[in-house]
Amino acid sequence: xxxxxxxxxxxxxxxxxxxxxxxxxxxxxxxxxxxxxxxxxxxxxxxxxxxxxxxxxxxxxxxxxxxxxxxxxxxxxxxxxxxxxxxxxxxxxxxxxxxxxxxxxxxxxxxxxxxxxxxxxxxxxxxxxxxxxxxxxxxxxxxxxxxxxxxxxxxxxxxxxxxxxxxxxxxxxxxxxxxxxxxxxxxxxxxxxxxxxxxxxxxxxxxxxxxxxxxxxxxxxxxxxxxxxxxxxxxxxxxxxxxxxx
Length: 246
Description:
The protein is α+β, with helices and mostly antiparallel strands. The chain contains 11 helices and 7 strands. The longest helix is centred in the N-terminal third of the chain and has 28 residues, at about 60-90.
């Protein structure tokens, strides 16, 4: 049970779901405290909420539940065996490949110099495929030239985001959710709103290049960091790969 709980934690780690879960846990703890010390009115109000706890969880976590079921449903028999192997054995066998930081940072530098708008998502999560499916599947070798060609303004793939995983360009023209954090995204366009939005919903590292200013930015866990250098981008990729990015 401890292993399964840990795997569920890994599945929602870094997403908005984890924050919501702790919020719900706080409500339940407050209910038990108020009931224990005899605050009847507050306890009764909180009791109404906890009485529909399962339904509340389904409503609040509907996106995460949907993505999880999509992963399970698309896996097939062979996929289920691999999934169970991952759960109980981890990532043994060297499945993770070294990310090509040089190619990505080189592409960011060239696109920033030319003021080419870009949106790049780097992920290691197995539940990110539903987002990938909104775009065009590529599964191509990661090179700076490929990224530049994708985001070239006359390219049919330049709209939307590129998803990079396992050192492959997995998909292009991917549609991402937009952030609703008005205070954070008020001065930015759709590209940066999408970068913040996907980082609020998944444990991913997102790089964006502004078409107007040529500035490189990165987004992680809902936090937006503008005007960074290609060298800083390479450093953040290494930290993300090593699970040390905060």
